[in-house]
Structure formats: structure tokens, C-alpha cells
């Protein structure tokens, strides 16, 4: 059997060790979900059919995105960064498995574990305080696919950021840039349907929308689900291919410099 | 207390001098963190691109809330925000080393890696406040003018108290770190908006249980001369300094209790 | 300098006993330890892992409050007067630096000066002195994270001594150091103790440190002080005397000599254990009178072996007193 499922499985199990911490984070996610829901309700009270959504859509979106936030790691970061900075990555590159594959498997496991542990509190809070739009089984399946694709896109972006450390030696400059782009264009700051029109159209084509906005819409059943999944898949493929190319360049650089 | 303040000053200065050796990286990192902090303002801007009022408040009034909330929060974050890292120091054993030194460990945690970029986030709210103040539709009495700096100072003190309270809980529950963020970062986010957008029971909670409403909401009602949706007595609007003193006192007690517990359990 | 009277520390540990059930159990980490250390002493503090060494050190330095018992360090109560004590105390952890990773050593030391409010002139003087003694010059400008372990340890020693403490507490200061670095650190500590009169309490697993430096040894085991005495007294513990190795002309049955017992026979060689107070010269004379002896070697008792046998319970600690 291939080693990748094992990597993913160990990463998933590792999350269980941080049960209490995940619960604490989940509570904060629930609180932020509450705040965002109140604000969006006030917005939709003024503009009842804004962007084709109703207030119930906006509320559900607030809590679903808070449930997703940890799993798709909106705030960025990959443990690989620290390994590149310390030089430990040389050990990883000598392993007979692909660097990208190893970390992708690890991230898929981590994301699944995080989703299981941290999505409970915000969804429960939303359901109890406001009531949420609950999708049927078919839509749940589509959402699951969209979630996996969102993790792939998120990983693709974070992997490129991590590899940039090979050239920049430090990620303290690029990390906040990535963070601003992600928070703003993913729909975390405000849902993209609130964006004024030309900006909304542009944001909808960028990869960050695949992280939060698109899975949120699939969950709500708004828009064309097949098109949404295809959009995510295209970005995932493009980013993973770019990651593979950059891995090759990084490996050559490491060999030339002798670690 | 005087000793602690002096120690805070000398330590922060020593760190600043160390950071000043890399001026370019300092400025760039400052700009970057200011940009992250500016996202909330961008969010408010986007909402007001679609509506003229939110919870009965116009753009200038909401930006006034944003600016006062963020001035207070960023100042408190710069002064004591590092207390949030307490659990990490305990876990990595560096907290023990701090106990071996003749300076309060709170001062040591707070000044660790002190950098001028902590203050970069002040620029945007300060500029926004300057833009928005003349556009507020209120009659500027001496009391209202004086209230603006008073509310920023009390807000800063309340947030400082919250940072220390949240850190004190970490002595007992190392894993509570993630939940404490609801109070600090959550408080920072929530005070950017008029309380009239939130449900009444929720507003009662953040008035009486966790006094976030006193950071800027109650004094802003005074400055803007607006009625209180909860109908609280007029004196409540002037209560922020007293609430700030109470929160800081409570935080000091909690910190001492936490430290005592740490030293008797050796967690 | 240090007075500890019947000091105890118990911890409550929670254990998972079932899937969900947890039970609380009280564990005594330190179980009634008493000792005094006089000014100017150089004391080694030994004990197997988990014996209560670090807990004792943490109580002496004020990090932990004892459950019961009294402690005075430099005339102060560590748990109540921690901050005042910190000014008179230097502490070095071998496995953990108290310096700041990202700062150059010089800045780290400047920060220490501010923490302890050392006056600038005195600081410069002490820094120059420590720089010369510990040879810090070549790496004062290097960030701490880039220092080698030996360099870092020297930096940590300097940081602990900048405020001229009366008492220096060292927790495994030579762990992981190479032979040369170890020798530097040991020579420095010896000078500090003899020339400056700084009292030093040294915790270590490296018995070389103890043999080279300490006149007095305390051994803690299972939370109790099991031995407290000089190094010679430790050597003279039951069955731990010197070993006489004799090579006879031909293999013989174990020889019989008064005041010595044969431990091992290998061909013509025999190993005789001499009790601590035995006179080696008379044993050798008696041997030479009755047997044809080719060669003789006298081996000092191996402190490492004694301590190992103490830890494993092969020698009772009572005999060591």
C-alpha cells in the first residue's frame, strides 16, 4: 500500500491530540459567526435581495464559513516553512517520496481532522440562535467534494508561499501579503456577493474565492454547482502543477547550493 | 507598580533598539501588518458601498466607532497583547526563566520582541478618526470633545485588562488560548460596529458580563448624542473610565492568582 | 547560603484509567529534604532521572512553592521574596537557554543588564572580565540561535553572572558539550568558586564535573536525600574500595591475603578489592612474600560505578553515610 494514505491518517489522528484546543478555537469561530451574522442581517434588512441572497442565506454563510475557516486554513501557514528555514527540508528531499505529495497528504489529513473537530461549535451556535439552511443529502455530497477541492486549492497556495522561502529565506514579508489577499478575496471579510460589480466579477475568477465563497455557495445551493466544482478543480490542478514545477526548481537550487 | 512601569520602559526600549538595526524590514513588516489590520475597514467600506445606514448609523458614525475601537485595541495590543503568548511560554519552559529574573513576568512577556511595527496599525485608525471627526453630525460641546481622548484611553485600559484576564486563565487551562481570542480579537471586531446591529440580549451580555460596550459604544452615544437602544441611564455613557479601572483591578487579581497557582502546581 | 528544612513537594497528577474515567493521584516529587550549604561551597547535586532534582532547584529559586518545609536562600524566602532573590542568584540551564534566540549575544547581555538594572560602568567592567575569561569576543555579535552549544553555554554563564550573584545554580551546564568546551566551562567555574568565592550548586549527570569540581556531593533518590558528604566519603562506601590488579607468574587459585578479597580471576591475573581504609602497601608486601608477582596496578574506585550501584540499589545508601 502506498505511503500517502498513512501520512494523511497520522495527520488526522494527530489532530485528535489537540481536542481541547480545537474546541476552544471552535468557540471563537462560533462567536465570530454570531457577530458576522448580526452584521449581515443588518445589511440585508436595508437591502433585502442583495446579490440574489436572502438574510437566511447570509446567516447560514456566516456560520458555514466559520466552520470551514480552520480546515482550509484561511490564516495561512504550512509546517513545511519552518523546515525549509531550518534546513531540515534536505531530509525530506532525500526521501523516496515526492515532497509535494507528502505535504499534500499531510494537509488533507489535517484538514479532515480540523473540520471534524472545529466545525461543531459554529454550526451548533448558528442552528440554535438563528436556525440554518440545512442542505439535503445530494447537496451535502456536492459540498463534501467542494470542501476537498477547497483544501487542495488552499494547499496549492500555501505550498507556493512555503517554497518561496527557498529564495526569500524568510516568510515574514510574504505571509501578510498572502493573508490580506486570502481574507479579502475568499469572502471571509464580507461575502463576495456584497462586492460592487466589477470587483465582484474579478474576485470570482481568482483562486481565493475557491476557499470559502464557492464552498459556501455550494452549501446554500446558490449558483451552478457543477460549474463551481469545475472552477475549483481547475485552480487546484493549476496550482498543484505550478507547485510541482517550483519543487523541481527548489531541488536544483538546493543541490547547487549544497543545502 | 512604578518599578514595573520603569522595567517595561527600559525593556521595550532595549528591544526597539535591537529591532532598529534592520530598518527596512521593520518598515515593510509594519506596512504589511497595517494592511492586515486595514481589512476590517475595507469590509465596512464594502458594506457602505451597498447601503447608507447600518443599524441606524451612517458611514461616518460607524467609521468613528471603527477608529476609536481600533486605536484602543491596537494600543492595548502593543502594550500587553503579547500576554496572549503565555501558554506558549509555559509549554516551552521559557516562563520558568522569566520567574528567575527580578522583573514581573507579565512585563517580560509583554515586552518580548517589542517592535515599532506594533504601532504601524495605529496609522489607519488615526487618519480615519481625523477625517471622520469633522463630519460627525453633532454639536461639539467641551464635554464631547474631551470624551474622544477619554474613550480611547478607557478603551485601551479595558482591552489591556482583557488581555491579562485571558492570559491569567491560561495558567489554569493551557488549552484555553483559542477561546480567549473571542474576547480579545472578537471584542476588537465587535466594537467596530454599532451595538444596534446586535440582538438586545447579546448587547446586555457585552455590557454587563464582559464590558465591551464601554470601550467605545457608550461614550460614542454621548459624543453623537444618540439614544441608548437598551435605555440605560445617562450616567452609563460616562462610566467608561470607572469600568476600565474595575476591569484592570480584576485583571491584576486574576494574574496574581494565576501566577500563585502556577508556582504551586508547577504545570 | 542555602538552608532547606524538611522540604516537601507533592503534585496531583490526573491519569486516564479508562476510556473516560480519570483518577487523581498524589505524587511526592520531594519528600522531606534537609540540608545547608555554607557560603563559598561548591556542591554537586546528583540523582537519577525523576528523583526530584529539578523540583528542588525550582523550589530553591522560587519558581515553585514548596508544599511544606522551610527554605532560606541568601537569607530570603524564595517563594515569597522571589524578585529580591533573583538579584542575588544566577541560574543556568544546560538544556535551555535564557538568552533571546534572535538577538546577537551582545544585545542579549545588554537586555540582561536592564533586567537586573546593573549600572552601566559596572556592567562594562564585568562584561570585559567575562569576555576575557570565557573567550566571548569572537561571537558577541552573533545571534544566539547561530551559536554552537559550547558558545551558547558560555554566553548563558556570562548572562547569569553579569549581576555578580552570590549563589550560582547550574542545571547540567556541560550537557552535550565537547571535551574542550567542557574543560573551559569547568576551569571557569573552578576559578569563580576559588577566586571570587561564589557559592555554586551544580546539578549534573556528568560525574566528571563532580570529580573535577565538587568537594561535597548530595545524592537525592525517590525524593529523599540519600547521601550528603565529601567525595572521599562517597568513594569509601561499602565495597567500593580501590582495586588491586596483580599479575602472577602463573595461573593460581584465588590468593588469600588479609585485608583484601579476590573479586575476579582471569588466567594469571587476579582482581582484589581493598576496603576504603585498607593499607595497600601492606597488602602488596604480603602478596609479594607468598607469590611470584610479575606486575601490579592499583585502580582508584570509579565514581561512575559507585553511583550506578547506588542508583540500582546494589549498595545501600545507609552504608554511604
UniProtKB/TrEMBL annotation, chain A:
InterPro entries in the cross-refs: ABC-2_transporter-like
Q: Which key words are in the record? A: Membrane, Transmembrane, Transmembrane helix
- Name the record gives this protein: ABC transporter permease
What sections of the protein cross the membrane?
Answer: 20-44, 115-134, 140-161, 173-195, 229-250
Species the sequence originates in: Actinomadura rayongensis
**UniProt KW Membrane keyword:** yes
From TrEMBL, chain C:
Q: Read off the SUPFAM superfamilies from this record.
A: P-loop containing nucleoside triphosphate hydrolases
Any GO CC annotation of this UniProt entry: plasma membrane
* One GO BP: response to antibiotic
rRNA processing keyword on record:
no
The reply on keyword Cell membrane is no
Q: Which InterPro entries match?
A: AAA+_ATPase (IPR003593), ABC_transporter-like_ATP-bd (IPR003439), ABC_transporter_ATP-binding (IPR050763), P-loop_NTPase (IPR027417)
Q: Which UniProt keywords apply?
A: Antibiotic resistance, ATP-binding, Nucleotide-binding, Transport
Q: Which GO terms describe its molecular function?
A: ATP binding; ATP hydrolysis activity
Domain spans labelled ABC transporter? 2-247
Q: SMART domains, from UniProt?
A: AAA
Q: How does it sit in the membrane?
A: Peripheral membrane protein
Q: Where in the cell is it found?
A: Cell membrane
Name recorded for this polypeptide? ATP-binding cassette domain-containing protein
Q: Which organism is it from?
A: Actinomadura rayongensis
Amino acid at each position: 500500500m502506498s505511503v500517502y494514505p498513512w501520512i494523511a491518517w497520522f495527520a488526522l489522528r494527530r489532530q485528535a491530540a489537540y481536542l481541547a484546543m480545537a474546541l476552544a478555537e471552535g468557540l471563537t469561530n462560533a462567536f465570530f459567526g454570531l457577530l458576522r451574522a448580526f452584521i449581515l442581517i443588518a445589511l440585508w434588512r436595508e437591502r433585502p435581495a442583495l446579490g440574489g441572497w436572502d438574510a437566511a442565506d447570509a446567516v447560514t454563510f456566516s456560520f458555514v464559513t466559520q466552520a470551514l475557516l480552520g480546515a482550509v486554513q484561511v490564516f495561512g501557514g504550512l509546517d513545511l516553512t519552518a523546515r525549509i528555514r531550518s534546513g531540515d527540508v534536505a531530509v525530506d528531499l532525500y526521501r523516496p517520496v515526492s515532497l509535494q505529495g507528502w505535504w499534500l497528504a499531510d494537509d488533507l489529513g489535517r484538514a479532515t481532522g480540523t473540520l471534524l473537530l472545529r466545525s461543531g461549535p459554529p454550526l451548533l451556535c448558528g442552528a440554535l440562535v438563528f436556525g440554518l439552511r440545512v442542505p439535503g443529502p445530494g447537496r451535502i455530497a456536492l459540498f463534501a467534494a467542494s470542501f476537498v477541492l477547497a483544501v487542495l486549492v488552499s494547499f496549492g497556495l500555501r505550498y507556493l508561499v512555503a517554497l518561496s522561502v527557498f529564495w526569500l529565506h524568510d516568510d515574514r514579508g510574504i505571509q501578510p501579503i498572502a493573508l490580506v489577499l486570502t481574507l479579502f478575496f475568499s469572502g471571509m471579510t464580507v461575502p463576495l456577493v456584497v462586492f460592487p460589480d466589477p470587483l465582484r466579477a474579478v474576485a470570482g475568477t481568482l483562486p481565493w474565492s475557491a476557499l470559502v465563497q464557492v464552498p459556501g455557495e455550494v452549501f446554500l445551493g446558490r449558483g451552478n454547482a457543477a460549474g463551481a466544482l469545475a472552477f475549483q478543480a481547475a485552480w487546484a490542478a493549476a496550482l498543484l502543477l505550478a507547485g510541482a514545477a517550483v519543487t523541481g526548481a527548489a531541488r536544483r537550487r538546493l543541490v547547487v547550493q549544497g543545502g | 507598580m512604578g518599578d514595573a512601569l520603569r522595567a517595561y520602559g527600559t525593556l521595550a526600549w532595549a528591544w526597539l533598539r535591537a529591532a532598529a538595526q534592520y530598518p527596512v524590514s521593520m518598515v515593510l513588516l509594519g506596512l504589511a501588518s497595517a494592511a492586515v489590520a486595514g481589512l476590517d475597514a475595507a469590509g465596512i467600506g464594502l458594506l457602505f458601498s451597498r447601503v447608507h445606514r447600518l443599524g441606524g448609523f451612517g458611514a461616518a458614525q460607524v467609521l468613528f466607532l471603527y477608529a476609536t475601537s481600533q486605536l484602543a485595541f491596537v494600543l492595548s495590543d502593543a502594550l500587553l497583547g503579547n500576554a496572549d503568548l503565555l501558554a506558549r511560554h509555559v509549554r516551552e519552559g521559557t516562563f520558568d526563566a522569566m520567574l528567575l529574573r527580578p522583573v514581573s513576568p507579565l512585563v517580560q512577556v509583554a515586552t518580548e520582541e517589542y517592535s515599532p511595527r506594533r504601532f504601524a496599525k495605529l496609522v489607519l485608525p488615526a487618519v480615519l478618526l481625523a477625517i471622520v471627526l469633522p463630519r460627525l453630525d453633532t454639536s461639539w460641546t467641551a464635554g464631547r470633545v474631551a470624551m474622544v481622548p477619554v474613550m480611547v484611553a478607557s478603551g485601551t485600559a479595558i482591552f489591556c485588562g482583557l488581555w491579562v484576564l485571558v492570559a491569567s486563565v491560561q495558567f489554569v487551562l493551557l488549552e484555553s488560548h483559542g477561546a480567549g481570542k473571542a474576547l480579545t480579537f472578537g471584542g476588537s471586531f465587535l466594537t467596530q460596529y454599532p451595538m444596534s446591529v446586535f440582538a438586545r440580549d447579546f448587547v446586555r451580555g457585552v455590557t454587563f458580563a464582559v464590558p465591551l460596550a464601554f470601550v467605545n459604544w457608550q461614550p460614542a452615544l454621548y459624543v453623537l448624542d444618540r439614544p441608548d437602544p437598551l435605555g440605560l441611564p445617562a450616567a452609563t455613557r460616562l462610566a467608561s473610565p470607572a469600568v476600565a479601572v474595575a476591569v484592570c483591578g480584576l485583571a491584576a487579581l486574576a494574574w496574581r492568582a494565576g501566577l500563585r497557582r502556577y508556582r504551586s502546581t508547577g504545570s | 547560603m542555602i538552608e532547606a528544612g524538611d522540604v516537601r513537594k507533592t503534585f496531583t497528577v490526573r491519569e486516564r484509567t479508562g476510556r473516560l474515567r480519570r483518577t487523581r493521584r498524589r505524587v511526592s516529587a520531594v519528600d522531606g529534604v534537609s540540608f545547608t550549604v555554607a557560603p563559598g561551597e561548591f556542591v554537586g547535586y546528583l540523582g537519577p532521572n525523576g528523583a526530584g532534582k529539578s523540583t528542588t532547584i525550582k523550589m530553591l529559586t522560587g519558581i515553585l512553592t514548596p508544599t511544606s518545609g522551610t527554605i532560606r536562600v541568601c537569607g530570603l524566602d524564595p517563594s515569597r521574596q522571589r524578585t529580591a532573590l533573583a538579584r542575588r542568584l544566577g541560574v543556568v540551564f544546560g538544556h535551555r537557554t535564557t538568552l533571546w534566540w534572535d538577538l546577537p549575544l551582545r544585545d542579549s547581555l545588554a537586555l540582561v543588564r536592564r533586567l537586573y538594572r546593573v549600572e552601566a560602568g559596572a556592567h562594562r567592567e564585568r562584561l570585559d572580565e567575562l569576555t576575557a575569561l570565557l573567550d566571548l569576543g569572537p561571537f558577541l555579535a552573533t545571534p544566539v540561535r547561530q551559536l554552537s552549544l559550547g558558545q551558547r553555554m558560555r554566553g548563558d554563564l556570562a548572562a547569569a553572572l553579569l549581576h555578580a550573584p552570590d549563589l550560582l545554580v547550574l542545571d547540567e551546564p556541560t550537557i552535550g558539550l565537547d571535551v574542550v568546551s567542557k574543560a573551559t566551562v569547568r576551569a571557569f567555574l573552578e576559578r569563580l568558586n576559588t577566586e571570587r568565592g561564589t557559592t555554586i550548586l551544580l546539578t549534573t549527570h556528568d560525574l566528571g564535573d563532580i570529580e573535577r569540581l565538587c568537594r561535597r556531593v548530595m545524592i537525592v533518590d525517590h525524593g529523599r536525600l540519600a547521601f550528603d558528604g565529601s567525595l572521599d566519603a562517597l568513594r569509601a562506601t561499602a565495597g567500593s574500595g580501590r582495586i588491586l590488579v596483580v599479575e602472577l607468574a602463573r595461573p593460581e587459585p584465588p590468593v588469600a591475603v588479609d585485608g583484601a578479597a579476590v573479586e575476579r580471576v582471569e588466567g594469571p591475573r587476579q582482581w582484589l578489592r581493598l576496603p576504603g581504609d585498607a593499607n595497600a602497601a601492606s597488602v602488596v608486601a604480603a602478596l609479594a612474600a607468598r607469590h611470584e608477582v610479575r606486575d601490579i596496578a592499583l585502580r582508584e574506585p570509579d565514581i561512575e560505578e559507585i553511583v550506578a550501584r547506588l542508583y540500582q540499589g546494589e549498595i545501600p545508601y545507609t552504608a554511604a553515610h
